[in-house]
Amino acid sequence: MADAPFIPLEFRRLDEDEMRARAAAFAAEADRRRSVRSFSPEPVPVEVLEDCIRAAGTAPSGAHKQPWTFALVTDPELKSRIRAAAEEEERANYSGRMNDEWLADLQPFGTDASKPFLEIAPALIIVFRHAWELQDDGGQGQNYYTQESVGIASGMLLAALNAAGLVTLTHTPSPMGFLAKALDRPANERAFLLIPVGYPADECQVPALARKGLDEILVRY
């Protein structure tokens, strides 16, 4: 283990009352998170976004390869180009790629191929997955469990942004190859999520949804 020396774990054990309070507070905060499609154009502090991305970068990953890139887009012209490309894919999705069941499941949310939030939201964070490791000599190294690793990092990013007082949407205008092209990303990077970030619009509304209760998602053994 000469290449990976071990160091003492920084850990502070909490008493049970504080553990319960923290867990309950986090669960309540997470329950307020909603996917938003109606954003305010008001700018958000860039250092807040950077700290949330920094938090996402602490996620565990296969063999500690950290196979992710977070592209932060605030340039209006680039956001406009991303919207145009995303809507082109979405028009194909809504007019034939999606089957009838998929379209029926989306109908209650009133979604369609128009995605104005991609321009209105003050920031977009595009999460890229590294399909392989790009080596200095131009070779290809292995990465492991990239879907799982980037999925965990994305979840941590969404939780951090929510805790910071911002709203988000997980947008997946599949296929998303246009994002790597628009942002001139390396050949090993694959777009994983397109996340508009900002404050909600003043008259923002979200669907009246009920989340599954604990008894529906937890199995005890």
Provide a descriptive summary of the structure in words.
α2 packs antiparallel against α6 (146-163). The chain is an alpha+beta fold and 221 residues long. The chain has a domain at 48-200: NADH Oxidase (3-Layer(aba) Sandwich), CATH 3.40.109. The two termini are 37 Å apart. The strands form two sheets. The chain has a four-stranded antiparallel sheet with strand order 1-2-6-5. A two-stranded antiparallel sheet has the order 3-4. It has eight helices and six strands; from the N terminus they run ααβαααβββαβαβα. A hairpin with a 5-residue loop joins β3 and β4 (140-141). The model has no long low-confidence stretch (mean pLDDT 96). It is 40% helix and 14% strand.
Using the alpha-carbon principal axes, give the shape.
Answer: globular
Average pLDDT taken over every residue: 96
CATH topology of the domain at 48-200: NADH Oxidase
Q: Which ranges are low-confidence, i.e. pLDDT below 50, for 5 or more consecutive residues?
A: none
Radius of gyration: 20 Å
Helix run count: 8
CATH superfamily of the domain at 48-200: NADH Oxidase
User: Order of strands side by side in the largest beta sheet?
Assistant: 1-2-6-5
Query: Any idea of the CATH class of the domain at 48-200?
Result: Alpha Beta
Strand content: 5-15%
* Total strands: 6
Q: Quick one: biggest sheet?
A: 4 strands, antiparallel
Annotated CATH architecture of the domain at 48-200: 3-Layer(aba) Sandwich
